[in-house]
Design goal:
Elements: H1 11-26, H2 29-55
Helix pairs in contact: 1-2
Length: 56
């Protein structure tokens, strides 16, 4: 069987772009993009931890 590709790293830019989209609407694009980046990194590490826990 083919090994499943791990695309968890794509979560970080997705949250960054969502934050930027919210920032465009609220006129604070830099602030919202940074918040989106931070949330993306937190979600990424949480999912890495969860996957390691399930794979044991």
């Amino acid at each position: 069987m083919k090994k499943k590709k791990n695309n968890l790293i794509l979560i970080i830019p997705a949250f960054l772009l969502m934050g930027a989209a919210i920032g465009v609407q609220t006129q604070s694009i830099i602030k919202q993009a940074i918040i989106g980046l931070i949330v993306g990194v937190i979600v990424y590490f949480f999912l890495i931890y969860r996957n390691k826990k399930f794979n044991k």
